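Format notes (please read before filing issues)

Several people have asked whether sequences and structure tokens are stored in separate files. They are not. Every record keeps both together, in the order shown below: the sequence lines, then the token lines. Line labels are part of the format and must not be stripped during preprocessing.
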Amino acid sequence: MTPSTEQQAQLTMPHLIVLGNEKGGSGKSTTAMHIVVTLLNEGYRVGVMDLDARQRTSSRYIENRVAFCEENGVKLATPEVRVVPRSTLRTSDEAEEDEQNRFITAIEELAVSSEVIVIDCPGSDTFLARLAHAGADTLVTPVNDSFVDIDLLARVNPKTHEVEGGSLYSELVWDARKQRAMTDRSTIEWIVLRNRVGTLNARNKQRVEGVLQKLSKRFGFRFVAGLGERVIYRELFLKGLTLMDLKAVGGLDGRGMTMSHVAARQEMRRLMDALHLPFRAKKEAAE
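Then the structure lines:
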């Protein structure tokens, strides 16, 4: 079952930023939360949808944030969140209709107070994930900088490193784009984030970049630098914090800001600029 034209139109009221791929461990939830907090700190009203009700990484991140604020007597911008669980109905048609209704209801509830909604998808192909992809205005696909994750996007010849064909996920995005174009003639901006890029100019790094350049032309996405490999991201989750909060709370555990933290914040700012979010561009032009 696919969303009707009328129902799809309801999904695009706020700007939808969807974090999606079909592989875990790529940094989706960490990236999502950093995008959310950056936008909140810039004055945007942001809502969050967690479509992985089993793992609940994004919603747990926000719960940790609320607990940190209460325990430490600090005020940090915190988004409204909705967790959308998968249906327990037996037949696939009934389950998909149920999930579609839940998805639309969550969008409508968040749209009342949000101008941007960030959706964190599960690392698997689910009907809820397909709904999110079809409704996306900006689709962000984080991948680790390795051929293990590149396989998510396409089949690559192991000897020549030539692209032999698309992956199931690439086909999913292609279908979502076609459906979106037929629904309201809108486009989905697809961005692939290269997370955990090594600092050394290794041969594998160059090969990955070469393959991504070919894939970007073939499948119509932009690839940009994402988040580096930093231990601090694992520490921040437990407190519900992001790099953009460290200055306000005096650093992690009161240790103050380090040069590594400053560099990471700059990395995040570059990532946000690279997303080319249209509402940020309009605001900057107006100022």
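For reference, the curators noted about this record: The two ends are 44 Å apart (CA to CA). Residues 1-12 have pLDDT under 50 and may be disordered.
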